[in-house]
Specification:
- This protein has eleven helices and no strands.
- The protein folds into two domains: 11-60, Arc Repressor Mutant, subunit A (Orthogonal Bundle); 67-206, Tetracycline Repressor, domain 2 (Orthogonal Bundle).
- The chain is mainly α.
- It has helices at 3-9, 14-38, 41-48, 52-58, 62-82, 90-107, 109-120, 127-150, 159-175, 177-183, 187-206.
Length: 208
């Protein structure tokens, strides 16, 4: 093997790994605040404390960084829905999903806003993921919910719109954080209150 081939395949150094993480974290901050169209490489470089040429050493451009973040995000976004057990207690499983989504919204607000901004723009970069990854999982878990309804274990409603409602009521706390933080300024009150309210809301909706 030539020296050039060896060089091109060797693992990135610790500094290179650190810089990639630094750039992606800075980009997440910029994209979540300004959206894809409003974000610039100069803003990302400033947020990361690196030069623009340094950013371009690691990534091909703004879109490359954005797609990398979306690819990382999609797995995290799907995992809570995958954890819903078709053999478990239906109300407990659905409330568990609600809590996982709420925890994600409160712990990962920038990621939630990144996802929301992408969807608002028509999902130009995430579209393939929605079709290939989210749609099969959405259909599978909708069937699980329908089976629970057919068995009389939970009240009948539209499974798809139920999932939409869970997404809307949990991700609100990330996507509209600027509003909720003003209206409910105490973190503990906001989190505990949201959890208790969503438990009450979905328990009443789902109890046969």
């Amino acid at each position: 093997m030539t020296d050039a081939a060896t060089s091109s395949t060797k693992a990135p150094s610790r500094i290179q790994q650190r810089n990639r993480i630094l750039i992606l974290d800075a980009a997440l901050e910029v994209f979540s605040r300004h959206g894809y169209r409003g974000a610039t490489l100069d803003q990302i470089a400033k947020q990361a404390g690196l030069s623009k040429p340094n950013i371009l050493y690691y990534f091909g451009g703004k879109e490359d960084i954005h797609v990398t973040l979306l690819n990382q995000l999609m797995k995290a976004w799907l995992d809570p829905l995958k954890e819903m057990n078709p053999n478990g207690d239906p109300i407990k499983e659905l409330l568990g999903y609600v809590h996982r989504k709420l925890d994600m919204a409160l712990e990962l607000p920038r990621e939630s806003r990144l996802f929301a901004n992408e969807i608002l723009q028509g999902a130009p970069r995430m579209g393939p993921h929605l079709s290939a990854d989210l749609k099969p999982l959405f259909d599978e878990q909708s069937r699980v919910i329908s089976n629970w309804m057919d068995a009389g274990k939970i009240a009948r409603c539209d499974p798809g719109h139920l999932l939409f409602s869970i997404w809307a009521t949990t991700q609100h706390y990330a996507d509209f954080a600027a509003q909720t933080e003003v209206l409910l300024p105490e973190d503990e009150r906001r989190q505990d209150g949201a959890s208790a309210y969503l438990d009450q809301l979905f328990t009443k909706l789902l109890t046969p």
